[in-house]
Amino acid sequence: MSLQTIFPGVYSIHGQPYTRSLTPGFKVHGEKTVKNGGHEYRNWAPQHSKLSAAIVQGLKDFPYQPGSKILYLGAAQGVTCSFLSDVIGPTGEIFGVEISKRALRDLIFVCEKRTNIYPILADASQPQEYAADVGQVDVVFEDVAAREQDAILARNAAACLKVGGFAMLAIKARSIDSAADPNKIYEKVITNIQADPDAHLELVQQVRLDPYETDHMFAVFVKKK
Ligand SMILES: C[S@@+](CC[C@H](N)C(=O)[O-])C[C@H]1O[C@@H](n2cnc3c(N)ncnc32)[C@H](O)[C@@H]1O
């Protein structure tokens, strides 16, 4: 079986992204697994994760490596968190913020197996509730289907992102305005984020997630100061 490296810790097998499992034998959402060279690899399907869709669609910056510290907003049941957990390894840390108690129950089950994910029951629009526990992180990742996606990213970057760190946002146009042109919504969200006086975020790449996610744009920012 041929295995190519897409990014450190992310591999292409038969044209699909895979990660090397930290917890062989334990699946998070029934994902396909394959064995290679004594390791188990988990299929990171772009249909089930916006970060995987962004990779398949040409993401250039992948600021995750062994030991990375991540603040993940909208952790849900932990699907994407679990793949990042494979990439950052046992010395990394993911702080997974989730507002839904029901989703958090499933996330806790994943955290019991994966000791580098810490679940936080909180509203991501209120980072002051958890910023002191999280500290400064290398990446803020946001995937919440909320109207104020821009303000949530800016506030969390201002509170927790280190200078030079990356902020990544899956913009869901239909959660902001179900009638407006998605392109106008992406532009407004990105403008608002870059204009925030405390976040200091500069856009470095935009990746369309269609056809994996309709009316979604993935935006990548760097914190300048
Ligand atoms: C699209 S799902 C996230 C899927 C997840 N990122 C993945 O790929 O595995 C969006 C999640 O954001 C959560 N959410 C919505 N508003 C939130 C908020 N203000 N704070 C924290 N989580 C929120 C929802 O409960 C939901 O679980």
Bound molecules: S-adenosylmethionine
Helix content: 25-40%
User: What is the CATH C-level name?
Assistant: Alpha Beta
Largest sheet geometry: 7 strands, mixed
- Strand content bin: 25-35%
Placed side by side, the strands forming the largest sheet appear as 8-7-6-9-10-12-11
Low-confidence sequence ranges: none
Please identify the structural class as seen in this structure. alpha/beta
Description of the molecule:
The chain is α/β, with parallel strands linked by helices and 225 residues long. It has a single domain, classed as Vaccinia Virus protein VP39 (Rossmann fold, 3-Layer(aba) Sandwich), CATH 3.40.50.150. 28% of the residues lie in helices and 32% in strands. The chain has helices at residues 50-56, 79-88, 101-113, 131-134, 149-160, 173-176, 182-195, and strands spanning 3-7, 10-13, 16-20, 33-36, 39-43, 69-73, 93-98, 117-121, 137-142, 161-172, 201-208, 216-223. It has a seven-stranded mixed β-sheet with strand order 8-7-6-9-10-12-11, sandwiched between helices. Strands 1-2-3-5-4 form a five-stranded antiparallel β-sheet. The longest helix has 14 residues, at 182-195. It starts with a strand and ends with a strand. The protein binds S-adenosylmethionine.
